[in-house]
Amino acid sequence: MCGIFVSLSRDTYRSPSEHVLKLLRDRGPDSVKEARVEIELLDPALDGPISELLYATFVSSVLALRGERIVVQPLVDEKTGSVFCWNGEAWEIDDNLVTGNDSEHVFSLLLQACGAGFDQDHLVQTTRRIKGPYAFVFYDNQRKRLYFGRDCLGRRSLLQGTSPTGELILSSVCDKGVSEQWSEVEADGIYWFDLSSRILPGARYGEVGSQLSPPYPPLNKSVALDTLTSLGPASPPVGILEDRLRSSLALRVRDVLNRDHVDLDGTSDHISNVAVLFSGGLDCTVLARLMHDLLPETETIDLLNVAFENPRIHKTSINGTHEALEVYDLCPDRITAKASHTELRTICPGRNWRLVEINIPFAETQAHRSTVIGLMHPHNTEMDLSIAYALYFASRGVGATHDTKTGCIREYATPARVLLSGLGADELFGGYQRHATAFARKGYQGLVDELELDINRLGKRNLGRDDRVLSHWGRETRFPYLDEDLLKWALAAPVWEKCSFGEDLSDVTGDEAAALEPGKKVLRLLAWKLGMKGVAKEKKRAIQFGARTAKMEGGKTKGTQLIG
């Protein structure tokens, strides 16, 4: 995980403000560096003389999670003077595992693409070879071109803004001191500016290069079926999902570098390198259960569960007394988390499953309100804020845990620098109530249309915002359900192999697995197969309602209402 800031100015080098520099450092606490490049702009009416200069400033912060050493960014090629800022994880290139530091590897490929016989499509083709989440800025000094973009899903944040004087800013976080007009860089291609001309990009943005071809097929919208085969725990789709999810998790949880670990008792017996954003629901608990099979049993898995004091629900304020814990213990996601935690401990007794209870009083929520709003910008609705609150405090990872030996409650802050999120499962497998509603109205045609809408807007609607909020505490969030190979299968499979709306359950008396809720049926059956029958039956609950962040400042507020 890294933070990126790039500015182009006619007047002077424009470094990020102290506020933005702090936000970048919060994202990447291991190193921060600035590189400057003076770019000669040629007058097209003349043959050679310099018309004026353009000042390019590149700043990168780094959270080092791979390799044996910290690779400081921006990377600068001594031979060509080209510069690279990378915020991502290249898990595979050309289907080959990338070991060690991936930023150096990707930079090398881009430099090769810009070598002899250069064609702009060569550079775009290079990005297509990468599996994993990323945002990047690459300056090709030989041709005076600036390239930037995000992966096809938009799993990493990159924003674009322009100052009133025409300065262009690309940044992982927005700087309202430079501009009020910020937008997400679209996750639909590689953008570029030709800086050798005298026209500095201003209100008009650069051209789109060749569009990125998604590394997965379009959603299978077939609805023509003669018979609907009932799904069960032994059905082929369940086995395929398990295999794909295990492979996805293996890339994301193994060999995580953690230089700063200090355990509760000062030993390394219960190291926690990876934590789960844990509501106790189906998506995240399946991830936790499969992680158990991939990590050494000596490694603790932290389960981060957040609960809020909501004055709309809790009429009296909380004064920090022991009785006040009831407010959090009665939070829907806390109840679910405790039940799922118990089930994990029963099924996998050799693992230390540490449930971290993160309780947030309303006063603390309000104290961080402006920070959260700034991080999620340019998203600015009440729903954005309610979701961002939950992600922000959960990823901070500061709460309390129950010592299983003594029964005592101890304050605790997770040392994990990698977080896992279950995001994507609802969109792929039909987990939202609106999917059931769409099926009730228009059958499978209505359902696949709704699923396609959700999948196509996932990056624009969720992921850039979530990356800015989750990364604020120097942790990287990874999304196993959005792995490219898993996506290939999930999107190509017919919808009835993923959920079971419309299935005839009249003859399944006594078959609890067959009678599971139809939304995300294939994932529910996987949970059942793994022994987590309680989790398999758990109903979907939106994060803002489960953590009680919805409508915290007024019961009549609508989710689509803009923040004042």
From TrEMBL:
<feature type="domain" description="Glutamine amidotransferase type-2">
    <location>
        <begin position="2"/>
        <end position="196"/>
    </location>
</feature>
<keyword id="KW-0315">Glutamine amidotransferase</keyword>
<dbReference type="GO" id="GO:0004066">
    <property type="term" value="F:asparagine synthase (glutamine-hydrolyzing) activity"/>
</dbReference>
<protein>
    <recommendedName>
        <fullName>Glutamine amidotransferase type-2 domain-containing protein</fullName>
    </recommendedName>
</protein>
<keyword id="KW-0028">Amino-acid biosynthesis</keyword>
<keyword id="KW-0061">Asparagine biosynthesis</keyword>
<dbReference type="GO" id="GO:0006529">
    <property type="term" value="P:asparagine biosynthetic process"/>
</dbReference>
<dbReference type="InterPro" id="IPR051857">
    <property type="entry name" value="Asn_synthetase_domain"/>
</dbReference>
<dbReference type="Pfam" id="PF00733">
    <property type="entry name" value="Asn_synthase"/>
</dbReference>
<dbReference type="Pfam" id="PF13537">
    <property type="entry name" value="GATase_7"/>
</dbReference>
<dbReference type="InterPro" id="IPR017932">
    <property type="entry name" value="GATase_2_dom"/>
</dbReference>
<dbReference type="InterPro" id="IPR014729">
    <property type="entry name" value="Rossmann-like_a/b/a_fold"/>
</dbReference>
<dbReference type="InterPro" id="IPR001962">
    <property type="entry name" value="Asn_synthase"/>
</dbReference>
<dbReference type="InterPro" id="IPR029055">
    <property type="entry name" value="Ntn_hydrolases_N"/>
</dbReference>
